[in-house]
Amino acid sequence: MPIKEGERVYLRLEDGKNYLLKVEKGKFFSTHLGNIYFDHIIGKEFGEEVYTSQGKKVYLLQPGIVENIFHMKRRTQIVYPKDLGFILLMLDIKENDRVIDVGLGSGAMCGALARLVGERGKVYAYEKREEFIAIARHNLSQWGWEDRVEIKQRDIKDGFEEKDVDALFLDVPNPWDYLKECWRALKGGGRLAIVSPTAGQVMEVLRGLEALPFEDTEVWENLFRQYKTNPSAFRPVDRMVAHTTYMIFSRKVSPPDWEVDLKET
Ligand SMILES: C[S@@+](CC[C@H](N)C(=O)[O-])C[C@H]1O[C@@H](n2cnc3c(N)ncnc32)[C@H](O)[C@@H]1O
Fold first, then answer.
1. Where are the domains of the chain?
2. Which pTM does this prediction carry?
3. Which of 17, 22, 165, 177 is the most buried (most CB within 10 A)?
4. Topology adopted by domain 67-264
5. Is the pLDDT confidence value at 263 over 80?
6. Distance from residue 88's CA to the centre of ligand 1 (Å)
7. Per-residue pLDDT reduced to its tens digit, 110-135
8. How far out from the chain centre does Cα 31 lie?
9. 81 CB under 6 A from ligand 1?
């Protein structure tokens, strides 16, 4: 399919620099290797190349979720692909799932959830700050997944409007304060994932989970190392991201009378 005006293209320059840009007729983009004219791109196929005004090669690639996340507009900390892929699997996110995402923030996790739940699934995304919602909306509409997300400008201290959701993802500074609300919103056996960057937060969450009908709790951290791809000098990159977040996973169980107990507390 030829590239059309308005389409987003991942441009990879011959020195390895890359850009994710929307193709706009009659316009150009300046780089350190010369200008890239969008009119040269319109009508080309993905995988083909164009040349800058300095005669340097530019490959035209289709952006995927990883490029989208690394190039997205953001005003908050986001969940990076390093942790995101594992969380999606641990939450067992699949087509038609109904999932809650809090806080929406810039929408990285929300976009990844929306992608997997498909056209008939739904992500209910809670965020208390209007300015972040605007950014997340912009990102989700660029990725084409806005229709799968219902954004709610609400503080989750007031609880969730949904019941029986398949999974719930919590990325807020004080997740332990909302564990009862999470329990109420999840279906029996439903999966909860929480990200927290510091050990103190994890300990607080673990205490909270222990006091509630949650089972199968696990805590994980991903240690990732990237490698240089020069075949004659294959070795790790010089710098590495040492820590992003801890990830806590747990599942709702439903002993008799627990809802009664929860209402009373
Ligand atoms: C780290 S950001 C979330 C980033 C997001 N997961 C992503 O991948 O882009 C945390 C967000 O939670 C929101 N937040 C914090 N407490 C909240 C609450 N009680 N109710 C709703 N949103 C909350 C903040 O406003 C912030 O935007």
1. 8-63, 67-264
2. 0.94
3. 165
4. Rossmann fold (3.40.50)
5. no
6. 18
7. 999 999 999 999 999 999 999 999 99
8. 28
9. no
The answer for residues whose C-beta is within 8 angstroms of residue 147's C-beta and 6 or more apart is: 119
Residue to substitute in 70, 109, 127 for testing ligand 1 pocket (most ligand atoms within 8 angstroms of CB): 127
- Residue 63: which pLDDT band, with cuts at 50, 70 and 90? very high
Check residue 259 and give its pLDDT.
75
Could you tell me if the CB of 109 is within 6 A of ligand 1? yes
CA of 172 to the centre of ligand 1 (A): 5
Residue 221 has pLDDT above 90, yes or no: yes
Residue nearest to ligand 1 atom 1, measured at CA: 77
Contacts of 195 (CB under 8 A, 6+ apart): 79, 83, 87, 169, 170, 171, 245, 246, 247, 248
Ligand 1 site-directed mutation target among 102, 168, 196, most atoms within 8 Å of CB? 102
Q: How confident is the model at residue 94 (pLDDT cuts 50, 70, 90)?
A: very high
Topology of 8-63 in CATH?
Vcp-like ATPase; Chain A, domain 2 (3.10.330)
- 241: CA distance to ligand 1 center in Å? 22
